[in-house]
Design goal:
Layout (H helix, E strand, L loop, with lengths): L1 E8 L4 H12 L4 E7 L4 E6 L6 H10 L3 E2 L1
Antiparallel strand pairs: 1-3, 1-4, 2-3
InterPro entries: Cu-bd (IPR000428), Heavy-metal-associated_CS (IPR017969), HMA_Cu_ion-bd (IPR006122), HMA_dom (IPR006121), HMA_dom_sf (IPR036163)
Organism: Listeria swaminathanii
Pfam family, one: HMA
Length: 68
């Protein structure tokens, strides 16, 4: 299991937090995604070799947010 912390910009409310969580959770191979509005982070646990960092960034960006 791998773990990656992304810095997410543009979240302003709980709905934003939920939207990023949903987007990351839908990436194949992701086992857990915890998004913190207060910290501006997304902590993602995923199966090694099944998920790339680029795929996670793309999911966040497609949801309408930026990864710093």
């Amino acid at each position: 299991m791998e773990k990656l912390i992304l810095n997410v910009e543009g979240m302003t409310c709980g709905h934003c937090e939920a939207r990023v969580t949903k987007a990351l959770s839908e990436v194949s191979g992701v086992k857990n995604a915890v998004v913190s509005l207060d910290e501006g982070t997304a902590t993602v646990e995923f199966e090694k070799g099944q998920v790339t960092e680029d795929a996670l960034i793309d999911a966040v960006e497609e949801a309408g947010y930026e990864v710093a």
